[in-house]
Amino acid sequence: MGAAHKHNSEIYYVRVDETRCNGCVLCTKACPTKAIRVRRGTARIEGVCISCGECTRVCPLSAINAVTPQRDLDVSRHYSVVSASTVIYSQFGEGVMPNDILLALRHMRLGTVHDQSYTSEMFSLALQFHIKEKRREPDATFPMISPVCPVVVRLILHRFPSLLKHIPPLITPREIVAREAKERLSAKRGLLPEDIRVLHITSCPAKMLCIREPVIQSHSYLDSAMGIPAIYDELRRHIQEQDEDVVLHHSGGAGLAWGMSGGEIAGIEGNCLAISGIQETIQYLYKIEMGLMSHIDYIEFRTCPEGCLGGPFTVADKYLAKHHLGKLVRMFGMERRVKYSYVQKLYEQGWFFSDTSEEPLIGPSLHLSSTDIAKRIERQNQVEEVLNVLPRKECGICGAPDCRTLAEDVVDGKARMEACVLLERGQ
Fold it and tell me: What is the DSSP pairing of strand 36-39 with strand 42-45?
């Protein structure tokens, strides 16, 4: 089956193996956007999927898996640049240094290799400038919410659109690497920037979604993403074989720490929090929505447990990976290796800002006309009427995650009241 699966004109980066799925409804209840239904005994994606991977974590039969495009035999001829998430430095155990991994990537001939951890250090310093700048403005919105996790950005877009204004208009390190690589290599080789292809190696299937449909940029500078397992065995072999003495890794521990929860804020001065896990993220987004967190400068959200180390596209156990990455951070020290004055100059020139930074981020639910609002109110009233009839047992036997979602499906014509077995039995 292909990497992306299409239903109702939407593309999802998860796959349901219908031969393994037994319709247990655990995935429907775990989905933060209530996008999954069980129809005819099989889980199906029918709503907005943000590629968070929660369904893959709770499935007891491993019937749901996250996917990205797989590497093909000709990939080396199609990509000129490769950039890997800092998570990759945690996947090979003791004795394997970040530079060893970058050299091995270069030997795989995927393209010119860039060290994203160094760019992460630049981003954290620029973010520190931005926080201080905004704290001087009396009407600035706080706390700021990290734009780094694509699942969090999508979650806010679809469930907490009023919080979009909390996301600073800064492009992420992975996008900065892609943008600069295209500009510099195209100038060096006499090509157009669009002629340079950039591949991102990641622990997160949602990276494909933010490449295809970015939220805080008009377009993504990345061209494709690939999960770490797709290249892991070959990369390990190259690590064992290579003995080249060339320095490709330039960051300190502040950049390396980005792979784990709390790593992004570790190098930032200010009142910051790190939250990981999808349910914890949702709880704190509610708190922000209620105005309870305005005393905090910045919140690093990661929906995966332990941060990106817990992403679906990792190979190593997340706790062992955290242990190993922690050792690397201590070894390299938490001091940034980027030049303060250089990053400050780039920040003042707008180098870190997205191309939509002059326009407010507005979610789809905030673009409603008076007619749309009237229709939504009417629909909500109909949902409440149906909900009042349902038994409110929240059992999930109907294939929806809860009674309210079934009521919404009934009103939208996607389900019938008869789907509620307990209602039919008079319970």
Answer: antiparallel
Sign of torsion over alpha carbons 90, 93, 94, 96: negative
Q: SS3 for 192-255, per residue?
A: CHHHCCEEEEECCCHHHHHHHCCCCCCCCCCCEEEEHHHCHHHHHHHHHHCCCCCCCCCCCHHH
Q: How far is the C-alpha of 302 from the C-alpha of 151, rounded, in Å?
A: 8
**pLDDT category of residue 267 using cuts at 50, 70 and 90:** confident
Q: Which of 241, 230, 212, 224 is nearest to 73 (CA)?
A: 230
| pLDDT tens by residue, 18-50 | 999 999 999 999 999 999 999 999 999 998 899
Q: Are 282 and 363 in contact (CB under 8 A)?
A: no
Average pLDDT, the chain: 90
Task: Classify residue 252 as left (phi > 0), alpha (psi -120 to 50) or beta.
Answer: beta
Confidence of residue 388 (pLDDT cuts 50, 70, 90): very high
Q: What angle do CA 175, 31, 50 make, to 5 degrees?
A: 20
Would you state the pLDDT for residue 119?
A: 97
Q: What is the DSSP string of 257-273?
A: GGGSTTTTGGG--SSEE
Residues 6+ apart with CB under 8 A from 393: 403, 422, 427
Question: Picking from 52-61, 133-142, 266-275, 355-364, which range would have the lowest pLDDT averaged per residue?
Answer: 355-364
The token pair that represents 365 in the structure block: 């639910």
Residue 242 has what pLDDT? 78
DSSP string, 88-146: GGGSS-TT--HHHHHHHHHHTTSSEEE-HHHHHHHHHHHHHHHHHHHHTSTT---SEE-
The model's pLDDT over 347-360, given as tens digits with 9 standing for 90+, comes to 999 999 998 754 54
CB 300 within 8 A of CB 265: yes
- Domains of the chain, start order: 5-66 (3.30.70.20), 75-365 (no CATH), 370-424 (1.10.15.40)
Of 212, 202, 180, 172, whose CA–CA distance to 81 is shortest? 180
User: Is a pLDDT exceeding 70 seen at residue 363?
Assistant: no
